[in-house]
Each structure stands twice: as C-alpha cells, then as structure tokens.
Amino acid sequence: MDHNHAERAGSEKDIMRITAIKKWLVDAYRTNLAFVKVETDEGLHGYGEASIGLHENAVMGMVDDLTPSLLGRSPLDIEALCHDLYRDSYWRIGPVLTSALAGVEMACWDIKGKMLGQPVWQLLGGQCRDRVRCYANAWFVPAKTPEEFADKAREAVARGWKALKWDPFGSLYRDITRNELLGSIRCVAAVREAVGDSVDLMIEGHGRFNVESALRIAEALRPFGILWFEEPLFPELLEELAGLRRRIPVPIAAGERIYHRYQARDYLARGCGDFIQPDISRVGIRELRLIAGWADAAGVGFCPHNPMGPITNIATLHIAACTPNFFLLETMANDVPWRKEISDEEIRVEDGQMLIPTRPGLGIELNETELEKHPPKPHRLRHYRGDLTAIRPPDAREWFIR
C-alpha cells in the first residue's frame, strides 16, 4: 500500500460515523411533534425536529426510508449528506421528504456544534444579534367574542408582548358575507382599541379565501394599521397572490407552506408578499439561510413561521442570531404543561424579545423518558371548524423564562 493510500484509509477510519437514527412522535394537544435523534460511533448525538403539523406518520416513515442511506455516513458532511438524500429520492420536492431531511439536518448541526464546542449560529457565520423581537401567537386562547379577544390582548400586552397575531375569521372558508366580514372586523377593532396604536397587529387568514373576499377584507382592515394580512388566499395561488398584493392597501405575509428553495424563488420572483415565512422544520437550516438571503436581495421581510416544538424554536433562534435581515420571530405565548418536561429547554424572554442561546450545538437535550409518556394522538385541522382558538388546553402555560 503506498503512503498516500494508507493516509487516506487511516483518515477515513477516523471519521465520525452515524450508527443509529431514533425518532419519537409526541402529543402536543393540537398536533404531534416529530423528533429525530442521530447517534454516532464517537458517543456524540444530536436532536432535530421534523414536525409538519399533520400527517406526521408519513414524515416518520420517510425517516425510516432515509435511515439506510444515513448509516455509516459522517454527520459532519452536512451539505453532501442532505444533497445526496434529496437527489436520490426521485420524488424530490414534497413536504414529507423535506421535513424528514430538516429533522436529520438539525441533528447533524447539533452534533457538529457539540464536537467543536460552539453554538450552531457561530458555525453559520457568527452573531448579528443576541436577541430577536417576537410576536405572540396563541395569546387569545380560548377567546370567542370580540370582548374576550380584547381582554386577552390586554393581558398579553401587560406581559410584555408588543406584537400580536390571530385569526378572527372563525370557520369561514372561500367566501365571506357582509355580516361575516363586519363580525370579523369588530374583533380586530376591539383588539386595536384594547392595546392602542403602539402594538403591532397581524391578521391571519390561514389560506382560506378567494380573491374577491380577500380584497374586501383587506380594504376593511386598512383603518387598523395592521403590520400584515397573512395567507389571505389559498396557498396554491401564487400568481393571484402577487396580483392581490398590487391591489390591496395592507402588506401581505405568506410562505409557511414553502418547503424548498424552488418554491421560495417563485414566491419572491412573482412579488407575492411583503414578508416571507418559511418554517425551519419543513425546509431545514441550509434552505432557511438561503431563502433569507434571497429575501434580502428582493427587499422582502424575513419572518419564519414558528409554532411547533422546542427544537424548531431553538433552531430558528440560531438562524435569527446570524441572519442580518431577520425581522420578527413567531412565538407561541403558551403551550402544553408537559413541554417543560420533555427537554431541558432554557429560553428567556425579555421585553417582547427572545434571547439567543449560547450553549454548544443547538443547546437543547430531549428527555427521552418523558417523550414516551406522551404518545401521539390523532388530531384534525382546526382552521375551518370554528374552534381554531382552542389550540391549547385549559392548563396551558408559559414555557419560557422571564
């Protein structure tokens, strides 16, 4: 054996290898969280999250399908690993595949950061900020009437939140009558009056309306100075969304159902929105960074979707730390009481801002024993059933540190 060959063989022998992939589905009341663990032959492990919202059994099945191609690979070669798994999947664009890849990729970044003793944001280019401004979701549970929303909004602002998002449209789908529109706008008016002009308000549409209805809603929202109208149209209607943006008097946000760079390219090229909202548990760390750069070049606000579990939240914080044009972080104001039991999550919120983690890797460990205590349950989409505000149980509580 020549010297060069022997040197290569020796170096390959020393490379860290993936030895096992483990996974869990965990009930979170409105959905099931999907967690992934990558183990190595050097004793290091990493955690990722592949939560998709619904159809999580399909994502876990995809993780099983990818596992044979992961075993024996180096978790440090993240770019090559993710590229090869995507390339070799044949049906290459789809949220099931990309969510599974996102979970695995997060776990590999976690391993790399632990090995180097650095937080992931340091490996991605270093720190732009040590905290990020947040807007609250789920602050309204279980409000139904405009008066109840107003009361909940006052409570949220008293707790330090300076931006609030909610869906005032109940069970509406596709069309909206004049009476239904007036009822929804009364809710917006009540919240604006309750919190004053200094709090940002975002109105969620959940991709439910046709163009004509969205036009009338947007015009009715004009007096309230909202920061954005989110997903006003069916998410498939990119061309129509771009046209709507040119016609309405309020900014548009969308993109949480984007799951790859090619979709993001179309969204930005068409001029579909003033803000783009990809979700790290559907696109992964590499894609999210790429989309952020494209958004910056297009002059579009970068505000990732972030309603899932502890690992997606902390992974998104790492992106917030190292991404200059990161604008706003979606934050769930409360969660199931067992969220604090399933990990050692230590996230601090101060004055409506979330502090960036500094521990090596992603900076979070799952409690695998506790995960087993909350097995998955079947959940249905609430968006069009009229009980959307019941996205948290009665005993929901804050999961972060103040």
Question: Mind explaining what this structure looks like?
Answer:
- With 402 residues, the chain is α/β, with parallel strands linked by helices.
- The protein is 40% helix and 15% strand.
- The longest helix is centred in the first third of the chain and has 22 residues, at 95-116.
- The protein is globular.
Tell me about the biggest sheet? Answer: 6 strands, parallel
Q: Give the % helix.
A: 40-55%
Please state how the strands of the largest beta sheet are arranged side by side: 5-6-7-8-9-10
Q: What is the first-to-last residue Cα distance? A: 62 Å
Note the run of SSEs as H and E.
Answer: HEEEHHHHEHEHEHEHEHEHEHEEEH
Radius of gyration (Å): 22 Å
The count of β-strands is 13
Q: Roughly what fraction of the amino acids lie in strands?
A: 5-15%
Compact summary:
The chain has helices at 3-14, 56-70, 78-87, 95-116, 120-123, 146-158, 178-195, 211-221, 238-247, 261-270, 280-298, 310-322, 368-371, and strands at 18-27, 32-40, 45-49, 131-137, 163-166, 200-204, 228-230, 252-254, 275-276, 301-302, 329-332, 349-350, 353-355.
